[in-house]
Each structure stands twice: as C-alpha cells, then as structure tokens.
Amino acid sequence: MTPRISVNMEQARRMGQHLVALNWKSAGYDTINDALPQGCTGEQAIDYFFFTSMLLFDFKNIETILPDGTYLKGTNVFFHLAKHAPEIRPDFWSAAGLAAMTDDDYRTAFSLERDPARPTMPRMDERIAILRDAAAGLLKHWRGSTSRLLTAYPNLKTEDGSGLLEIVRRTFKGYDDPLYKKQFVFLKALDVTGRWGPQDPENVQMPVDYHVIRLALRNGIVTVNDPTLANALRGNQPCSAEDEALLRTAIMTAYDEMIRSAGLSVYFVDEVFWLIGRSCCHYARPPRCTTCDFSDCSVQPAFGYTCPGLCPLAGACLGARDEQYRSLLEPNVVTTYY
After folding, report:
1. From the CA atom positions of the chain, what is the Rg in Å?
2. Among the four residues 16, 41, 143, 296, which has the most C-beta atoms within 10 Å?
C-alpha cells in the first residue's frame, strides 16, 4: 500500500547537491546578536534566547513600518518588541522578572503602540501563560538560570531519555513540541554565536516551521500521495494534528538526508530554506520560480548573493516545473509549535 506521505530520498540528495553547487557562505549571524537588548550579555543573553525562542509561533501576516521607515514583518516585528521590552521593566527577560509581571506589563511590551489594550502579537493569553510557566519552572529547578540547566544536561539525547531535549520538553509548556522545533532554534542562537554547544552535535536537527515545511512540499523532498490531503493543503483547509505530525516527521527525515548527503551544516541549511521561504517562496504571493521583482528579499544580504531574478533553488526544485508541487501550502493548523 502506498503511504499517504513519503520521503523522496533521491530528491533530498539532489537538493543537497544543488546547495553545494551554489557555493553560498553565510554572511554571518549578526542578526542574532542584533536582536539582543542593549547591554544584554553573558548569562542574560542565554536567558533572553531561552524565553524568546519559546514564543516563536504564529507570526503570519504581522507587519509594520517603523517611524524611521523600516519595514518589518513576522519574526522581525517580534524581535523588535522583545529587544525593547526591558524599557517596560529592566529585568523583563529574567525568570524573576517574568514571574512578577502583570498581564498589562506583558501586553504593553508586545504592543508597538505601548498600549496593553492593543498588543501587536496575537494570542497573548497563550504567550503570557507560556512565559509564566517557563519562569516558574526555571526558578523551581535551576534557580532561575538557563545556564544551570544547560550545564546539568550537556547532551541533547541520551539512551535513558534524560537528554536536554526531553527534559526541556517535559518541563516547559513553551517547548512541548515532540519534534523540538523551538528548542533547535534556541540552540542555534547559542551555538552560532559561541555561547553554548551540545556535546552531541550530531543530534542537532532542522527546526521545522511553516516556511521550511512549504519549501519541502514544493521542492518535492516529500511527496503527499493522498490526493485528499494534497488538495486540502492547496486549498489552505484545516489540517488534523495527526496529518500535521506525519508531514513534519517525514520532512525532518528528508532534511536529515539532504544535510547528511551534502555534508552541510544544519544551521546553514536552516538559514537557506527559512530565508527563501519568507522571500522567494512566500505563502502570501506566487512563488518566484522564474521571475522576481527583488522586493522584500532577505536572501541576497544573508549570503552576499547577486540574484539573477529567479529563485536560487529553481534548478533542482520540482515545484519550479510542476504546478502540482508548486501549489502546495503548509498545513493550516493552530499550534504553538511554530
């Protein structure tokens, strides 16, 4: 019987080799350090990334233009607010500070207008509950210090299930995703900036969010064999939690094969697909497989790339040639996982 969703290992390897042929080098991860509040260093920076990473979900259709004319969307809006949150309370991004704040403190910090009645971020009740739970857990078990947590669990995975990934998943509501998406984003922020790295880096995997899901479906590294599910994805119809989990699990397997076969860094591949997903192959506009107006591009500055006016993955992407792949969208689910 044909599985409803299958991994196309050959296409995963082909995409990996295409990335190798591009010969891109990251222009650096300065944007990660740039997201830090002024004066946030050392253990404070680790705490900051720990708390902010668990809020990385449901940023679709969020955008703004700052007073200086800078356009921001999605994650960039969130980190603009997070960076300036200590203006509300200097210890905002500490366990003690988060535990002591009122709902209005949270809502004010996540409002571009500094109005608690008009938060910019959606689903604020969930975000507040996640941060309060995280603060309580960190205070209870590790005296409010993320660094103590990392020191206690230097390995991501262990045979007895007591590695960092599972300990964090079981302890904190904001990290309860069984595929660890937000944990891997948190670890990336620490690892690429030299703040902390696991003793078993071979267990680092792709943080699979809606941008990299969309890319995987359109690239063809996974195949949706169930026509009902495929049509539901194309129509942006609600997706069950079971189908979403099947998709993401298959996609993680496909990215693992791409990374392994091409000998590339997980963090580099994540950067490529996430940036292309929010630039060339966005959910809200036609994909730029063969033509591009260069607007709202995050790819060129990130890799020092001079774009010829089409998606850099088009040479290997199945969706660049096949509408059946190109029309697929990520699952329509309400989740805190991504």
Report:
1. 20
2. 16
**pLDDT for 298-320, tens place per residue?**
899 899 889 999 999 999 999 99
Give me the DSSP letters along 50-115.
HHHHTT----TT-EEE-TTS-EEETHHHHHHHHHHGGGT-TTTTSHHHHHH--HHHHHHHT-TT--
15-19, 121-125, 300-304, 324-328: segment of lowest average pLDDT? 300-304
How many residues would you count in the chain? Answer: 338
Residue 325 has what pLDDT? Answer: 98
Residue 29 pLDDT? 84
Instruction: State how far the Cα of 109 lies from the Cα of 120, in Å rounded to an integer.
Output: 9
Instruction: Tell me the per-residue pLDDT of 146-195, one tens digit each, with 9 for 90 and over.
Output: 999 999 999 999 999 999 999 999 999 999 999 999 999 999 999 999 99
Angle at 284 between CA 278 and CA 286, to 5 degrees: 90
When pLDDT is averaged across residues 51-72 and rounded to a whole number, the result is 95
Distance (Å, whole) CA 168 – CA 294:
40
C-alpha dihedral, 204 to 209 to 215 to 216, nearest 10°: 60
- What angle, 0 to 180 degrees and rounded to 10, lies between the N-to-C axes of helices 181-192 and 164-171? 120
- Helix, strand, coil distribution of the chain in percent, nearest 5: 50, 5, 45
Distance, CA of 227 to CA of 171 (rounded, Å): 39
Over 80: is that where the pLDDT of 28 sits?
no
Instruction: Give the whole-angstrom CA distance, residue 253 versus residue 205.
Output: 9
Hey, what are 106's tokens?
A: 């949270």
Packing angle of the helix pair 210-219, 266-277 (nearest 10 deg): 90
Token pair for 156: 């991501």
- For 209, residues 6+ apart whose C-beta sits below 8 A from its C-beta are 56, 181, 274, 338
